[in-house]
Amino acid sequence: MFVHNLNPVIATLGPFEIRWYGLMYVIGFILAYFILKHLSKQGRIKLTKEQLEDMLVYGGIGGILGARLFYVLVYNLTSYLQNPAEIIAVWHGGLSFHGSVIGGLIGLYLFSRKYKFDFLEILDISSIPFVLGLALGRIGNFINGELYGRVTDVSWCVQFPGAEGCRHPSQLYASVKDLLIFATLWVLKDKTRSKSKTSLDPVERGSTWEMKKGMLAATFILMYSVLRFIVEFFREPDPQLGFLAFGLSMGQLLSVLMFIFGVFLFIKINKNIKQ
User: Which of 100, 102, 179, 207 is least surrounded by CB atoms within 10 angstroms?
Assistant: First the structure.
């Protein structure tokens, strides 16, 4: 058993606090910049320095706004209506992944329209740093001692402050899940273009498997929805919601919808390829 006594605050500067949770997202943005820069140099999609920075701003602001608004409206509207000042207190936690996807999609769509990029190609390259940022965010949740798992007697259970019983460190399970998706996307990104197109051997050229645009994004959506559904079995349901239809949590129900959308996107991409 591990007793959670981690301080979520790194340092205090007058009335301001520097928290691990916020630092994780700052690190995520920095890593996203260098990952996108690396992919641009590889020729996945050509981005100028200005375009790369704008992409992070559009996707980042859209993702954060979407994540917060979705959490407020879907997960805890009554509480926030009683304490409206808490709506902007994102440093206290309360960001919905599914909302961040919706907000991020809107932001990236606006970005792609502004610079006339192919929207699916933008989704492909942005999926890679996005899921890495999610992994870091879940570590921030663990340090905050929030979004913990259900009561268990496994040897690695954690006693969180204010929580009854020893719990699954479901935040860390979620982080591992996101790192697994990141590793998968990182490997698959090299399949988005053929390395044998210049080969003189026609058999070699024809045998190279090449992913089409949009497939990385579809893979991310399908993997995340399935793995999130599984991890939710170890996570304590949100107290204000509990279990919903069919004994599933809100996260699981939203993951089912996300999976359906992923299947739709996958079929649409393959249909367009055949045509």
Answer: 207
